[in-house]
Amino acid sequence: xxxxxxxxxxxxxxxxxxxxxxxxxxxxxxxxxxxxxxxxxxxxxxxxxxxxxxxxxxxxxxxxxxxxxxxxxxxxxxxxxxxxxxxxxxxxxxxxxxxxxxxxxxxxxxxxxxxxxxxxxxxxxxxxxxxxxxxxxxxxxxxxxxxxxxxxxxxxxxxxxxxxxxxxxxxxxxxxxxxxxxxxxxxxxxxxxxxxxxxxxxxxxxxxxxxxxxxxxxxxxxxxxxxxxxxxxxxxxxxxxxxxxxxxxxxxxxxxxxxxxx
Length: 262
Fold this sequence. Notes:
It is a single chain. Helix 2 (42-52) packs across helix 8 (235-251). By secondary structure, the protein is of the alpha/beta class. The longest helix is centred in the C-terminal third of the chain and has 17 residues, at 235-251. The chain starts with a strand and ends with a strand. The model is unreliable at 253-262 (pLDDT under 50). Helix content is 32%, strand content 21%.
């Protein structure tokens, strides 16, 4: 399948619904979640796209919606947080997509004790889920995974989602594909061609959902295996492409200069 950006006309782009992962996709990965920052100009690009698309652009992240609000303020976009555990349409209230797990508190206690004895392991509490970051202790990936598997064993309402130097523990029913489906069922997303951009395994369900709907999936980086037939190499490349779309829409000319294909 080829998706020829060169022949995408402004009128066609205005019929898109864009779904964007955040860390590793829109912004560069950092040593700790709190160290991440939104690059200059990105808020303005996203706001312009939102206006052009009638609000049909959403952040789909492992972060909580509260954290996304903090990072991108004063910009307010539609958002799905905690791998689809929560959802918010632009200007609306946060909707709980999955019930809270009674088992999560016990897992959190186990991981907190583990982190105390293993420098470099960072535990991120996200209300309805948690993340274990091992970017600063890459040799602990395997023992951390084993500990998590033991901690959630017997908890049918929890799952482990692998990511870029992190594991997330979240509701078994949460996934980014369900979040995309929920957005696509309502205006301003309904009836549009969905475009999903993400960088890791947690985005694969989002890719599957947009492809099922005749949309387009773009994987950031050079992962060998992915449902996404299209590639952008870095978050900077994503930001440049989004800015180019805005520029071409403003000038009402065909999007030119690049073709990405499988």
